[in-house]
Amino acid sequence: MHEMSLMAEIIRIVSDDAKVNGIRKVSRISVIVGDLSNVLPDALELAFFYFQKQGLVILDETTELELISEAAKARCRKCLLEFTPDYRVALCQKCGLPHCELVSGETFRVESYEGSDEV
Ligand SMILES: [Zn+2]
């Protein structure tokens, strides 16, 4: 499951930034997971649970993971209809054309994190 390496990457990004900002303990990590990002929230939580048990300095079992879902949205370039696509390649629900651009739903990134300089 690639969520394991994604979670490792998230923790690395947060750890690096926390170090720069003098934060020694992270209490919450917020991550945006788009519906079309190919990331499974359940698997991501499982991976986080695994890393919580690893005795990392930066986070432990009190650290929260907040997953913010981002709905998929597409817009037809012809009639400008906005709709919820099932896949990355979407057919406009009005004119049936495949010339739609994805407006949202592909995001996968750390939105923010909270922590303190006390361990
Ligand atoms: Zn259309």
UniProtKB/TrEMBL annotation:
Coiled coil: none annotated. GO terms for molecular function: nickel cation binding; zinc ion binding. The keyword Metal-binding applies. Zn(2+) binds at C76, C79, C92, C95. Ni(2+) binds at H2. InterPro entries: HypA/HybF (IPR000688). GO terms for biological process: protein maturation. It comes from the Bacteria. The keyword Zinc applies. Keywords: Metal-binding, Nickel, Zinc. Involved in the maturation of [NiFe] hydrogenases. Required for nickel insertion into the metal center of the hydrogenase. PANTHER family: HYDROGENASE MATURATION FACTOR HYPA (PTHR34535). Belongs to the HypA/HybF family. This is Hydrogenase maturation factor HypA.
